Amino acid sequence: MKIDASLPSSLNTSTHPDSGHWNPPPVDRVKVNFDACFDPTHLHSISGILIKNSEGKLLAACTIPNLYVMNPEMAEALACDQALILSMELGLKHIEVEGDALVVISKVVNPMIDRSTLGTVYSNILEKRRNFDFFSFSHIYRINNNAAHVLARVGKQNPQVSVWFEEAPQPVEEAVMRDKGWFNPMI
Q1: Average pLDDT of the residues in 94-98
Q2: What is the DSSP string of 81-141?
Q3: How many angstroms separate the CA atoms of 40 and 140, rounded?
Q4: What ranges does the record give for the region Disordered, renumbered to this chain (predicted)?
């Protein structure tokens, strides 16, 4: 569903079918998947961000630790914001952003000002969309966001900012292959 076609970027709130596989973007775009792993005991989270092209090739992967995170929504909103920052730093101009946190996706596509404690984070996300020539947000089911989920969990083992280009830790590479439906565990 397009929210405002007059904006320089379009927003998409579609929910993809529960196929168990990652859906590629058109050739002229990249797909940016984000997820977060939240630790309520220590109030921190790890953001997992994956950027793939239309062939499903991994262009970049990143984990970012976050301190003083109050709840899962905050963890996911920070991961979304960090996904946009990484995309901007890489000079990407045509992106489709996907995440499995419905509340986050709903709030970033809502034209209403969010007056919650996370309103500033959501406002920052919306401001960043101006840096892209094409921009969409989509909610997807967790099963379709598995590689980003695995990446966030891998980041828990080494809680520091880590960035990989055209590769990722082995469990993430395997999840990327499974997402594409090309994984053969017998190899």
Answers
A1: 97
A2: HHHHHHHHHTT--EEEEEES-HHHHHHHH--SPP-STTHHHHHHHHHHGGG-SEEEEEE--
A3: 24
A4: 1-24
pLDDT in tens, 34-49: 999 999 999 999 999 9
Which position has the token pair 């976050």? 66
Share of the chain above pLDDT 90, in %: 68
CA distance 187 to 184: 6
- Domains of the chain: which residue ranges? 30-179
- Helix, strand or coil, per DSSP, at residue 76: helix
Strands 134-139 and 94-99: parallel
Q: What is the CATH number of domain 30-179?
A: 3.30.420.10
